[in-house]
Amino acid sequence: MTGLWAGKQSAWAWSIAFLIWFCVFAGQPSAAAPRRHHPKQSADAQGAQINVKQSPVYTTPLQVNVNRVLVNVTVTDPYDRIVTGLDQSNFEVYDDKVKQTILSFSTEDAPISVGMIFDSSGSMSDKIQKSKEAALQFFQTANPQDEFMLINFSERPNLISGFTSRFENLQDRLLFVKSGGRTALLDAIYLGLQEMKKATTNRKALLVISDGGENHSRYTERDIKQMVKESDVEVYAIGIFEPLSSRDRTPEEAAGPSLLSDLANITGGRMFSVEDPDELPDIAEKISIELRNQYVLGYKPSNLVADGRWRRIKVKLNPPRGLPPLQVYARTGYYAPTQ
C-alpha cells in the first residue's frame, strides 16, 4: 500500500506540474513559428512601409530656386494719381520675356521699413528748412508698425539713427542738422543700403532728399547701381533742382536728376523733381501714400537654372474698360541665385 500510495502521489505530482506548464506556456507562440496577424494589421504595416520610403540620392545638386520673386507695383493715372481697386487678372508678369504664373497677389498696407537719406551739404543751404519739413511730413503719415532709419550726409554720411518705430526721436535729431560742406551722395546711399539689411519687415524702401549734386564720394555711380540691382529695396527720391531759367550749376549738379532717376527706375521707385521748396512736404506725403497703396505680385520663376544672371522683369497691365491709359512702375529685374 505504501508503494501504491507513493506511486499515486508521484502521478498526481506529475499531473499538477503538467497542468501548471500548460497554463503558463501553451498560449505562447513557438520561436520558430511566425506570429499570425489580423488582415487589417498587415495592411497598416504595409502602408507604414510605403510612407517611410527613402528618397533616391542624387549625385549632382539640382539647380532649383524655391523662392518666389515678389514685385511691388505702383499704378498711376494720367494725372499721376494712385490707382487702386485692380485685381490679379489685370496684371501680367514676364520674366526674361516669358509669361509667368502669378501665385500670390496682395494689396494690403503691410508694415514697411524706410531709410531716409537726407542731404545737408552746402548746396542745400537755402532748401534745408523745407527739406526738414518734408521729412517730418513723411514720418507723420507712418503706421504704428512701420520703422524708420535716418542718415544725413554732406562730405561723409552720418547714421543719425538706426531703425526705430518712434519717429519722434528722428524728428528731434533732424532739427539740429545744419548744412555745409561737399556732397557724398553715393556714399550715403551705400551706407543706406547696408543699413537696410537690418530691417525687420519684408518691404523696404530708401527715400533720398537731395539736389543730386554728387562730388565727394569714394563709391562710383556704377558701384551703387550694381548694389541697388542686388538689393530688394525700392528707391524713391525727391530731387530739389533750380528752375531751368535760372540754372547755373556744376556738371555734378547737372547730372543729379538723371542719377536719382536711374536709381529709382531700377528698383520700381520714382523720382519727383521739385523746383519750388514749398512743394516738398506735399511730395513727401504723396510718396508715403504711394508706398502704402502698392500691389504685390508673387511668382516662382519658370527658369530654375541657378546661373547668377540678371533676369529682366516686365509687368503689363490689362486695365478694366473705360479707364484712361495707366502708368505702371515696377522693378526692372533681379539676379538669379548662383547655387
Report on this structure.
Helix 3 packs antiparallel against helix 4 (about 165-175) and helix 3 packs parallel to helix 9 (about 280-290). The longest helix is centred in the first third of the chain and has 24 residues, at about 1-25. With about 350 residues, this protein is an alpha/beta fold. The chain has helices at about 1-25, 40-50, 130-140, 165-175, 185-195, 220-230, 250-255, 255-265, 280-290, and strands at about 70-75, 90-95, 100, 100-105, 110-120, 145-155, 155-165, 205-210, 235-240, 270-275, 295-300, 310-315, 325-330, 335. Strands 7-6-5-8-9-10 form a six-stranded mixed β-sheet, sandwiched between helices. The chain has a four-stranded antiparallel β-sheet with strand order 4-11-1-13, with no helix packed on it. Helix 3 links the parallel strand 5 and strand 6. Mean pLDDT is about 80; it is low at about 1-65.
Strands, helices and their partners?
Blueprint: H1 2-25, H2 39-51, E1 69-76, E2 91-95, E3 98-99, E4 102-106, E5 112-119, H3 128-140, E6 147-153, E7 157-164, H4 167-174, H5 185-196, E8 203-210, H6 221-230, E9 234-240, H7 251-254, H8 256-267, E10 271-274, H9 280-291, E11 295-299, E12 310-317, E13 327-329, E14 333-335
Parallel strand pairs: 5-6, 5-8, 8-9, 9-10
Antiparallel strand pairs: 1-11, 1-13, 2-3, 2-12, 4-11, 6-7, 12-14
Helix pairs in contact: 3-4, 3-9, 5-6, 6-8
